[in-house]
Design a protein that fits this description.
Elements: E1 2-3, H1 26-34, H2 40-58, E2 61-65, H3 66-81, E3 93-97, H4 124-131, E4 135-140, H5 168-175, E5 181-186, H6 192-198, E6 201-204, E7 224-229, H7 232-242, E8 270-273, H8 283-296, E9 300-303, H9 307-310, H10 312-334, H11 341-351, H12 355-375, E10 381-385, H13 403-410, E11 415-422, E12 428-434, H14 440-462
Helix pairs in contact: 2-3, 10-11, 10-12, 10-13
């Protein structure tokens, strides 16, 4: 649902190199707002103007009420002018995946069955975002119950391609300069893969780092909150806010010190696991990753003979199918004619998983978590593909293969997509870094180091 009034607000600021406010990172925008160089009204107006130019093709938004958004921005500016204390996301627009409950906006869960659904209270993360001063821009398009059925959203880099799923609208909205930040979820690869396809930073923190209260539950074991932004500092900032009440003082992110991570006294140690399903990689992704591995030299270690890890993908499937059946079967049975064949098959498969099989799968997951806890005593991060390659075409009726995220999601490991490669068709290809559970800040600092390292390598080769 889209609602656009006639916008009468004028942008009152010009940026160096003709940068429009809607193109700023969240941290850049906040610094300008907090210094008085940019108003929230300016920023929101620029974002709304950008949405009006491209939304009819991209279809990133399920619900957006521009009158409400402008009212929020005006209030933010009034707070600033009154000299009151402002939060770390003051005046910054944020998009929410449409499986996250909002008391002032409908929540459709990616299906017409819930067209008239209006939650009575905000999800926990929405309350935290509002308390930080963020402007809730609207609800972004998702796939049916955050599952595999493709949504109506297209990729901002090529309208004939998918943005990925299930956080399709959230990734596309950031890539299209509709908002600097958005929130998604991941049960398999639904943050990292769309981030890769859309060429933005995507971050899935450690499982349990962010509360899922008020968010559609398909799998209590695997569902995890993530986010999209234009820089590592952006995803670090919003993750810090959303995880606020689940963090100890020691686990709070220090995004202000992120720029120091490129000057680490000791270079990070990386691992590359040669997994059997990497034969699904497209040529461009394989070549790009090979180039990165070669650039890292002694900083990365290739590890073969990890075929046993491949079996964990079946463990993920078993848990997912059992839990989505347990959580959604009653509802799906009542609305059987209104759900996709894809979801129907998932529900049917889930009904055939026994409790013993499910218990065994959970035990295998626990063993995998123990394995990775030991693994990261030697390494700072695993380097891996974010996706098979460039985004598939919409006509293929696929949001892409999630298997490159499955193991890390199963074990609840923090993962980040770095938008640093391009394919033969000039489409983005991401590189994924995976870290130790609970070491989210360390992973993001390692990711920042890698980006700076590769940028310096490219500059040297270009001379």
């Amino acid at each position: 649902m889209m609602i656009f009034p006639n916008i009468h607000y004028l942008l009152g600021i010009k940026f160096i190199m003709n940068t429009e406010p809607c193109q700023l990172t969240a941290t850049e925008a906040f610094n300008l707002i907090s210094s008085g160089s940019l108003s929230s009204v300016d920023l929101v107006t620029s974002c709304l103007n950008q949405i009006s130019k491209t939304e009819n093709i991209i279809n990133a938004w399920e619900y957006l009420n521009a009158d409400n958004v402008m009212a929020q921005s005006v209030k933010c500016d009034q707070i600033y002018k009154a000299g009151k204390k402002i939060g770390p996301l003051h005046g910054i627009p944020v998009g929410l995946k449409d499986i996250i409950d909002t008391e002032s906006m409908p929540t459709h869960y990616g299906t017409t069955i819930f067209n008239n659904h209006q939650p009575k209270v905000d999800a926990k993360i929405v309350k935290l975002l509002k308390a930080s001063g963020a402007i809730i821009m609207g609800k972004t398009v998702t796939t049916e119950f955050a599952f595999f059925q493709p949504s109506k959203t297209s990729n901002p880099h090529s309208f004939e391609r998918t943005p990925g799923g299930s956080s399709s609208g959230s990734a596309a909205a950031v890539a299209a300069n509709h908002v600097p930040l958005s929130v998604g979820t991941q049960t398999n690869g639904s943050v990292i893969r769309p981030a890769s396809f859309c060429g933005v930073h995507g971050f899935k923190p450690s499982n349990g780092f962010i509360s899922r209260l008020g968010v559609l539950q398909t799998s209590q074991t695997l569902d995890q909150i993530g986010c999209f932004g234009r820089s590592i500092s952006d995803v670090m900032l919003i993750s810090d806010i959303m995880g606020l009440e689940r963090q100890s003082a020691k686990r709070r992110f220090s995004y202000q010190s992120l720029n120091k991570s490129s000057n680490l006294s000791v270079s990070p140690k990386f691992a590359w696991l040669d997994l059997p399903f990497y034969d699904r990689l497209k040529w461009s992704a394989r070549e790009g990753l090979t180039s990165i591995i070669e650039s890292l030299g002694d900083n990365i270690k290739k590890i073969n003979k990890v075929d046993q890890l491949y079996k964990l993908t079946a463990v993920h499937t078993k848990i997912y199918e059992y839990e989505i059946y347990e959580n959604q079967n009653n509802f799906c049975e009542k609305n059987w004619d209104q759900i996709s064949d894809t979801l129907k098959l998932m529900i049917i498969r889930g009904s055939k998983v026994s409790k013993n099989e499910y218990s065994d799968a959970l035990a295998m997951r626990s063993s995998a978590q123990d394995f990775f806890a030991d693994f990261f005593t030697e390494f700072d991060a695993i380097v891996a593909p974010s996706a098979a390659g460039e985004a598939p075409f919409l006509k293929e009726l696929s949001t892409g293969d999630p298997i490159f995220c499955t193991l890390w999601t199963l074990a609840g490991l923090p993962s980040v997509n770095l938008p640093i490669l391009y394919g033969l068709n000039k489409m983005p290809i991401g590189v994924q870094l995976i870290g130790k559970v609970g070491q989210d800040e360390s992973l993001l600092k390692t990711a920042n180091w890698l980006q700076q390292f590769l940028a310096n390598e490219a500059n040297i080769k270009g001379k």
